[in-house]
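Allow me, if you will, to draw on your knowledge of protein folds for a short while. A protein sequence and the structure tokens that stand for its backbone fold form the material at issue. I would ask you to consider whether the tokens describe a fold that such a sequence might reasonably adopt. Thank you for your consideration; the sequence and its tokens are set out here:
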Amino acid sequence: MNINLYILKKNPREIKIKLFGEEREIGLNTEFIELRRSKIYQRLHIHTYRYRMGIVGNLNSEQLQFFNSDGYLVLESFASSDEVKSLRLQMDQLLDQFDCSSSASIFSTKNQQTTTDDYFFESAEKISFFFEEKAFDDDGKLKQPKQLSINKVGHALHEKDPVFKSFSSSEKMTSLLFSLGYKRPIGIQSMYIFKQPGIGGEVVPHQDNSFLYTNPTTCTGLWLALEDATILNGCLWAIPRSHKDGLVRRFIRDETGVHFDKPSPPYDQKDFVPIEVKAGSLVVIHGDLIHQSFENKSSTSRHAYSLHVVDTDGCKWAEDNWIRRNADPEPLYAS
């Protein structure tokens, strides 16, 4: 006979449970430990929420079902307006401090093999700045201020910057990953994406597992809108349920540089659906989901913060991924 334990509510100091049909609150540091040690607890069937190492999953069954079915999930108001403002202000400071005369590295998903350089490779463990292709004139000079010329900043904001690190490792982030079944997740790359007005570049159809491959595959993209993302300013588009077809190709780094192991298959644009979201919304993206975004031809930017996570429990990081770190990232938690 199973005895159900319902975890109803949790805060940093106590947890509200329903045990034997009765609700009670117990302290996490004392009473809950004693409960775990008891013979009764060993017979309990954990129900409704998974609880381990002080982490409670924050996705409900309907959300998990949609994510598993369609390959993506929109969580509205995931970040508060204060959190969005904090991330944007921090990036303003980073841009102010950036000396654009020291670097002119361009990022493009259309010409990724030719625009990838040592600066890009070294960015895996740094905060680096990459320009839009259309930011420069024929003489190689910026056509507008640097704040309107940057494509993205990456790829270690979640480690090297205190504001982005705090958000990336927050309780709601770890709870989300726990809901998705991660056992020992790490943030493997992060990007602040500007999608500049008028020149914000296209991101061609791709799968995140192509670039951040583990065996078995475990990558999930967490894409936070810092401004409203619309069809006009270059929101995400995805092919629902395309993750069920598996990984199409890999982006490999070897002695010749970087390249895909296979050509891209053709995609019918009619299969894509737009994912328009408000600022503060988080789009959770399965690593095998085909997704893209178009050029921003509008007069408004489309800022976003993107964090990619992989598991390190029961899987292996591929040595021929483009990211080759000198030091392993700290896990967000270990269950």
Remarks:
- The first helix runs from residue 31 to 37.
- The chain has ten helices and 21 strands.
